[in-house]
Design a protein that fits this description.
One of its GO terms (cellular component) is endoplasmic reticulum. It comes from Salix udensis. One of its GO terms (biological process) is carbohydrate metabolic process. Belongs to the glycosyl hydrolase 31 family. This protein is an alpha+beta fold. The protein contains 13 helices and 46 strands. The strands form nine sheets. Strands 4, 5, 6, 7, 8, 9, 12, 14, 17 and 18 form a ten-stranded antiparallel sheet that branches. It has a seven-stranded antiparallel sheet with strand order 1-2-3-19-16-15-13. A hairpin with a 2-residue loop joins strand 5 and strand 6. The longest helix is centred in the middle third of the chain and has 16 residues. The N terminus is likely disordered.
Length: about 850
C-alpha cells in the first residue's frame, strides 16, 4: 500500500546548471508525499542513493523508533491525485487529497508545497518554501589535492570537529497563515508566544531559537538559547480559533528564526494577502522528514502530533503526588529523619529522591556501603507508609576495570566511539567516563536488563529511576557535550543524532523497569533531555533553574510549551535548584508548583536545607496547605493524565487552548488551565497581596477554597495574601479526596467528594478515572467499592433539606457545609452529605 507521490528535485531548487566536470555534478533529490488518517501530510526529501554519478558516500541519518507502528499503518491510499494550474502559472501543480476539508498542493517550478483549506476558499494554512529559501547541502568526500578549510573541519575553543562528508545542512522557510502567534520548539526559558528573531525592529544581535540539547549551568530567563531538550514542533494560532502545526523530525542541531512583519518587503511576494507568520528552519544534517497538522483547533493539533509520535504513558498515582529531593540526602539516617519530619508536621509526600552521592564512587547501580549499608531495609520502611524511592542513573559510565558494568560494556564494544574508532572517553561526575551507544536496540535491551533485582543489588519494587545528564553532558567536551564527529552504530556521526541521544537512554531505562516488573508495573523514569516521543517513557523537568522570581514566572510558559508539544508530565524544581529562596518566594513556589503536572522540590548541594518545616510556623502552614490542595485534587489530576494517555492533550494548558477565540488569552502565560475545569493564576512579585485575574468565557467561576463567584469575560482583583487564585469553571464537576493521609497510596480506598459547579443552565459535567494501578495493563474488568461521601453544589441556591437517591429510594440530607474541610474562611455551600453511592454504579440524586 502506498500513498506517496515521488519526484526528483535539483539541489537548492535552482535552475539546471551547465554541464560540469563529473566530480562537481550534483545528485538529484527524491521527494515523497504521504497522507495519513486525520489529514496529516508527511513530506520527505532525501538524496537519490541510486544515482551513481557521483555516488553518495553514505546514507543520511533518518531518526528511528520515534514514529509509532500504529501511525505507519494508518497511511492512506491517495483517493484523488490531480493537476491544477494556479494563478495563471505556465505549468500545472499537483493536488493531493488530504481529507474532505483539505488539499495539499505541490508546485513544481518554483518548488513549493502547501496545505489549503477548501472550506475557506482554498486559503493557505501552512506552506513550505513559499519564499524559495530551500537549500540542501549534499554529502561528498574530500577530493585528492583539495585544501583543508572550514568545509572539512571546524575549530571551537580547542576542539576540532572533523567533517569527513563536508557541510550537510538543510534549510527552508515555513509559513503559517491567518496566525497571530506561534508557540512550541522547546526547550528555552521564555514566553509561550515566540518573539521575532529577525526583521524590522528586531535588534541585530538577537540569536535564532536553537535546538541543541545541552547541560546549561544556571540558565537565563527570556533567552532563545536552547536548553536540555529539543522538540521541533511549532504550533500557530489565530483570531478565528484556528491552529496548525509543523514538525521536522530531525535529531541534528537546528536553528529556527521567527521572522517579523516586513522582513520580506523586497521579496516581490506581497500579492499574498493572507496574514501570516514566516519562519526559517535550518538543520546541520539529516533529511527533510516533515509533518503538517491541519487542526483545526489547538487540541486537534496536539492529538494529531501524538498520533505520530505516540500517546503519553499513563503514570502511577504516586508519581503525580509530591516528591522530595535534594543533592544529596546524606545517608540512611538523614532519609529517616526527613521522612519522620514530614509526618511530624502533617505534610504528605510520596517519593524521596537520592542523587549521585548515594552510590559507590558515582558508579551507578551501586550503593555507598558506609552511608547506605541497608538500602533494602530503608526502602521497606518507606514502603510501609506507601512511599517510594527514586535513585539517579546517568548515561556516563565510570571507566574503572573493577566496575563490572564498565568492563562488560567495553568487552562487548557497546560504547560510542571517537572519530578515530576508539571508545570515546569524556569527563563527567565519576571522572573518566564512556557513554553507551543507545541508538543500538541491542545495547538498549542489554541496559534494560541491568534494572533487574538481581543486577541492581539493593533495589526493591518501590524504587524507580531518574535519568539526568543525558543530553549527553561531557564536562570536557565542546559546549559541555559530545564531539559531533563521535561515531555510533553503522558509522552514524553524533552530529546527526545528538538531540535524540537522551531519548534513547530514557527509552532503554523505562523499558528496563517494564521488564523488571514483568510488564505489569508502570515505570517511572524522569529525564532531563527529551525529543519527540519522550512522552511515551515518562516525565521531564525544566532542569537547573534558580531561586528567583523570574524563574518562578518563566516556569509556567516552559511547562505550557512542553504540554503543547506532547509532553504533559513535566514540572520545574520547586524553590529553584540553585540559590537560596527567601520564605515568601519558597511559599509562592509551592503554591504554584502544587498545580504543576510533576511536583517536586529539589535543591543543589551548596544551598541551605529547605524542607517545608524550616521557615517558621506560618510558612510551614502555607506550604502544608499548598501540598494538601494537590493531594485533595489527585483524583482530578489522575483523570486528566488518563485523558492525556488516550488523546495526547496536556494536563496544564494555556488559556487559549480552552478559549481559542478569546484574544485576551493569547498573550497571557501567567495564568493557565488545569484540564478544562480549573484556572490558576500565579503570584510572581514579592510582597503582592492581590492579583488581577482575567477569567475567560461567559460563565461564572468559583474560588476553589471559599466558593466566591466571579463573572467570566472580565478581569477581577482577588485576594492572594495566603494562596494563589484558583477557580473552578461553571459547568464542570471536579472529583476530590478530602481525607488527609501520609501518602497517595494510603488514600486509594478513601471516599470521594464531587464539587459540582452548575452553569447558567443549571448543568455540569465531569469525569472520574480509576484503575488497578500499578499494573501496566489488565485483561480483567476493574471494579471498585469506592463511594462518594459528599456532593458540593456551587451556584445552586440553598433551600431544599433533602434529596432522593434512585434506584435505592433513599433519602439523604441537604445542608450548608464548608467547601474545604479544615478551612475557616468562606461561606457555607450547599452539600449533600453521605449519599454513600458507589462510583462504579449508575444512580440519580434528585433534590426534593
Amino acid at each position: 500500500m502506498s500513498s506517496a507521490t515521488a519526484t526528483k528535485l535539483p539541489s537548492a531548487n535552482e535552475p539546471e546548471p551547465a554541464p560540469a566536470p563529473l566530480a562537481d555534478q550534483i545528485r538529484p533529490l527524491i521527494l515523497s508525499l504521504s497522507v495519513y488518517h486525520d489529514g496529516i501530510l508527511r513530506l520527505k526529501i532525501d538524496e537519490d542513493y541510486d544515482h551513481s554519478d557521483p555516488p553518495c558516500p553514505k546514507t543520511r541519518f533518518q531518526v528511528p523508533d520515534v514514529i509509532t507502528p500504529e501511525f505507519d499503518s494508518n497511511k492512506l491510499w491517495l483517493q484523488r491525485l490531480s493537476t491544477e494550474t494556479l494563478n495563471d502559472e505556465s505549468s500545472p501543480s499537483t493536488v493531493v487529497y488530504l481529507s474532505d476539508g483539505y488539499d495539499a498542493v505541490l508546485r513544481h517550478d518554483p518548488f513549493e508545497i502547501y496545505v489549503r483549506d477548501k472550506q475557506s476558499g482554498n486559503q493557505k494554512l501552512i506552506s513550505l518554501n513559499s519564499h524559495q529559501l530551500f537549500d540542501f547541502e549534499q554529502l561528498r568526500v574530500k577530493k585528492e589535492g583539495e585544501e583543508d578549510g572550514e568545509n572539512w573541519e571546524e575549530r571551537f575553543r580547542g576542539h576540532t570537529d572533523t567533517r569527513p562528508y563536508g557541510p550537510q545542512s538543510i534549510s527552508f522557510d515555513v509559513s503559517f497563515y491567518s496566525a497571530e502567534f506561534v508557540s512550541g520548539i522547546p526547550e528555552r526559558a521564555m514566553s509561550l508566544a515566540l518573539k521575532p528573531t529577525r526583521g524590522p525592529g528586531v535588534e541585530k544581535d538577537v540569536e535564532p531559537y536553537r535546538l541543541f540539547n545541552l547541560d546549561v549551568f544556571e540558565y537565563l530567563s527570556e533567552s532563545p538559547f536552547g536548553l536540555y531538550g529539543s522538540l521541533p514542533l511549532m504550533i500557530s494560532h489565530g483570531k478565528e480559533g484556528r491552529s496548525a502545526g509543523f514538525l521536522w523530525l530531525n535529531a541534528a542541531e537546528m536553528q529556527i528564526d521567527v521572522l517579523g512583519d516586513g522582513w520580506d518587503a523586497e521579496s516581490g511576494i506581497d500579492w499574498v494577502k493572507q496574514k501570516r507568520i514566516d519562519t526559517f528552519w535550518m538543520s546541520e544534517a539529516g533529511i527533510v522528514d516533515a509533518f503538517f497538522f491541519v487542526g483545526p483547533g489547538p487540541k486537534e493539533v496536539v492529538r494529531q502530533y501524538t498520533s505520530v509520535t505516540g500517546r503519553p504513558a499513563m503514570p502511577q498515582l504516586f508519581s503525580i503526588a509530591y516528591h522530595q529531593c535534594r543533592w544529596n540526602y546524606r545517608d540512611e539516617e538523614d532519609v529517616e529523619n526527613v521522612d519522620a519530619k514530614f509526618d511530624e508536621h502533617d505534610i504528605p509526600y510520596d517519593v524521596l529522591w537520592l542523587d549521585i552521592d548515594h552510590t559507590d564512587g558515582r558508579r551507578y547501580f551501586t550503593w555507598d556501603s558506609a552511608l547506605f549499608p541497608q538500602p533494602e531495609e530503608m526502602q521497606k520502611k518507606l514502603a510501609e507508609k506507601g512511599r517510594h524511592v527514586v535513585t539517579i542513573v546517568d548515561p556516563h559510565i565510570k571507566r574503572d576495570d573493577s566496575f563490572r558494568l564498565h568492563k562488560e560494556a567495553a568487552e562487548k564494544g557497546y560504547y560510542v566511539k571517537d572519530a578515530g574508532g576508539k571508545d570515546f572517553d569524556g569527563w563527567c561526575w565519576p571522572g573518566s567516563s564512556s557513554y553507551l551507544d543507545m541508538v543500538n536496540p541491542e545495547i538498549r535491551s542489554w541496559w534494560g536488563d541491568k534494572f533487574s533485582y538481581e543486577n541492581y543489588v539493593g533495589s526493591t519494587p518501590s524504587l524507580y529511576i531518574w535519568n539526568d545528564m543525558n543530553e549527553p553532558s561531557v564536562f570536557n567536551g565542546p559546549e559541555v557535550s559530545m564531539p559531533r564527529d563521535a561515531l555510533h552504530l553503522g558509522g552514524i556521526e553524533h552530529r546527526e543524532l545528538h538531540n535524540s541521544y537522551g531519548y534513547y537512554f530514557h527509552m532503554a531505562t523505562s523499558n528496563g523497569l517494564l521488564k523488571r516488573g514483568g510488564g505489569n508495573d508502570r515505570p517511572f523514569v524522569l529525564s532531563r533531555a527529551f525529543f519527540p516521543g519522550s512522552q511515551r517513557y515518562g516525565p521531564v523537568w525544566t532542569g537547573d533553574n534558580t531561586a528567583d522570581w523570574d524563574h518562578l514566572r518563566v516556569s509556567v510558559p516552559m511547562i505550557l510549551t512542553l504540554g503543547l508539544t506532547g509532553i504533559p508530565f513535566s514540572g520545574a524544581d520547586v524553590g529553584g535548584y540553585f540559590g537560596n529562596p527567601g520564605p515568601e518566594l519558597l511559599v509562592r513556589w509551592y503554591q504554584l508548583g502544587a498545580f504543576y503536572p510533576f511536583f517536586r522540590g529539589h535543591a543543589h548541594q551548596d544551598t541551605k536545607r529547605r524542607e517545608p518545616w524550616l521557615f517558621g510556623e506560618k510558612n510551614t502552614r502555607l506550604i502544608r496547605e499548598a501540598i494538601r490542595v494537590r493531594y485533595m485534587l489527585l483524583p482530578y489530576f489522575y483523570t486528566l493524565f488518563r485523558e492525556a494517555n488516550t488523546t495526547g492533550l496536556p494536563v496544564m494548558r494555556p488559556l487559549w487552548m480552552e478559549f481559542p477565540s478569546d484574544e485576551a488569552t493569547f498573550s497571557n502565560d501567567e495564568a493557565f488551565m488545569i484540564g478544562s475545569s480549573l484556572l490558576v493564576q500565579g503570584i510572581y512579585t514579592e510582597g503582592k497581596k492581590y492579583a488581577s485575574v482575567y477569567l475567560p468565557g461567559k460563565e461564572l467561576w468559583y474560588d476553589i477554597r471559599i466558593g466566591d463567584a466571579y463573572k467570566g469575560g472580565k478581569t477581577h482583583k482577588m485576594d492572594a495574601a495566603e494562596s494563589v487564585p484558583a477557580l473552578q469553571r461553571a459547568g464542570t464537576i471536579i472529583p476530590r479526596k478530602d481525607r488527609l493521609r501520609r501518602s497517595s497510596t494510603q488514600m486509594v480506598k478513601d471516599p470521594y467528594t464531587l464539587v459540582i459547579a452548575v452553569n447558567s443552565s443549571q448543568a455540569a459535567e465531569g469525569e472520574l478515572y480509576m484503575d488497578d494501578a500499578p499494573f501496566s495493563s489488565s485483561k480483567s474488568q476493574f471494579s471498585s467499592k469506592s463511594i462518594i461521601e459528599r456532593i458540593i453544589l456551587l451556584g445552586y441556591a440553598p433551600g431544599p433539606k433533602n434529596a432522593l437517591i434512585e434506584p435505592a429510594n433513599q433519602k439523604v440530607e441537604v445542608e450548608l457545609g464548608p467547601l474545604m474541610l479544615g478551612g475557616s474562611r468562606g461561606s457555607s455551600v450547599v452539600t449533600i452529605r453521605k449519599p454513600a453511592v458507589k462510583v462504579s454504579d449508575d444512580w440519580t440524586i434528585k433534590i426534593l
